[in-house]
Amino acid sequence: MRAWPKLAVIALMLPGAITAAILPVLLNHPPSPAGLRVWRLALALPVLLTPVLASFWQLQRGEARAAASLGAKRFDRLRWIWLPQLAPGLAASLVLAFLLAGAAFLTRH
């Protein structure tokens, strides 16, 4: 396994660890509504990026190189090679985002 996937996983875990360390301060002085949105995004981002990163690590890079050598432009490689391979991870991220938004809506109202 290459080194950068391990670093990416560690970087994805940082927002939760930082929040756990700062939580006592946040409880004494609650953030503004905008600050609360930033914290929610920072905590949801690892959950939403994990499926996309898993799909990205399994990409068949030889296909993109072959398409480039045959004259395919960048947009064509993105559209016909990269996006279909990333589609399962993107779909899983969208489902997770929908579930998180639904849970936030149900607990707020």
From TrEMBL:
Residues 1-109 form the ABC transmembrane type-1 domain. It is found in: Cell membrane. Its main location: membrane. One of its GO terms (cellular component) is plasma membrane. One of its GO terms (biological process) is transmembrane transport. Keywords: Membrane, Transmembrane, Transmembrane helix. InterPro entries: MetI-like (IPR000515), MetI-like_sf (IPR035906). It is a multi-pass membrane protein. The chain crosses the membrane at residues 7-27, 39-59, 80-106. This is ABC transmembrane type-1 domain-containing protein. It comes from Lichenicoccus roseus.
